[in-house]
């Protein structure tokens, strides 16, 4: 299935959208439980290590426009009402641009709203664990630098299937969705739609056909036209959080001395991630 969402309709698609009644939200990773052992007389109780802590602090956003009394009186084309409606569009656009930054800046620790105890970017080749004695050589890497291609997608799938939990156990991954900018949309669509191998004369069946859903994320093009992502969609919806502390609200008033009509909008929101084990990010070099 291909999905090319409108510019301002991606937050609900990508995030677990929630309301908040606090100044900030705190998320805690959950440690894995070791294997069962043979019982010899009594139960053996396993140590479960805490996951990393994330604090997501909401920020305030506001905007306003002013319209003169004369403009209101002489309005012949409903321009005044149209300007007020544009304020709502501005609010939606602002939120969506921030939502996109979760992916656009997935390779950076310059977070917009969150403080992350691990201290690493969302996509990183050196993720860590609090569990004692666990090797992070394999299974703690969700960062690649290869350009989009059939071979790169397959390598990313294999890398994701090797993800490990905090205690080094393999976890069940279903990397079922590709997220690409407009510039990679055609290549990605051909990859998942062609019956034969892409760009070859061979008659081999295309391993990738129907294997992935496709999200064409247009706003990614504003940051980079080559970077792409592969995600486990179900896990993503459990790991990416968008908080609406104060939903968008609108107010208007008229200045007593100037008759200037003022329209204002306000909201508070934030976003962040609980854990990195849902995606592979390609920062193409």
Can you put this structure into words, describing what you see?
It is a single chain. This protein has 285 residues and is of the alpha/beta class. It has a single domain, classed as phage-related protein like fold, CATH 3.90.1690. The chain is built from six helices and 13 strands. It has helices at 11-14, 69-73, 79-104, 150-160, 185-193, 233-239; strands at 2-3, 16-19, 24-28, 53-57, 59-67, 114-116, 143-144, 177-180, 213-216, 228-231, 240-254, 261-273, 279-282. The protein has a six-stranded mixed beta sheet. Strands 2-11-12-5 form a four-stranded mixed beta sheet. The mean pLDDT is 93. It comes from viral metagenome. This is Putative capsid protein.
Assembly category: single chain
Number of self-contained structural domains: 1
Distance from N terminus to C terminus (CA atoms, Å) equals 29 Å
Largest sheet: 6 strands, mixed
Characterize the overall form: flat
- What is the residue-mean pLDDT, rounded to a whole number? 93
Read across the widest sheet, the strand sequence of neighbours is: 1-9-8-10-13-7
CATH topology: phage-related protein like fold
What is the N-to-C succession of helices and strands? EHEEEEHHEEHEHEEHEEE
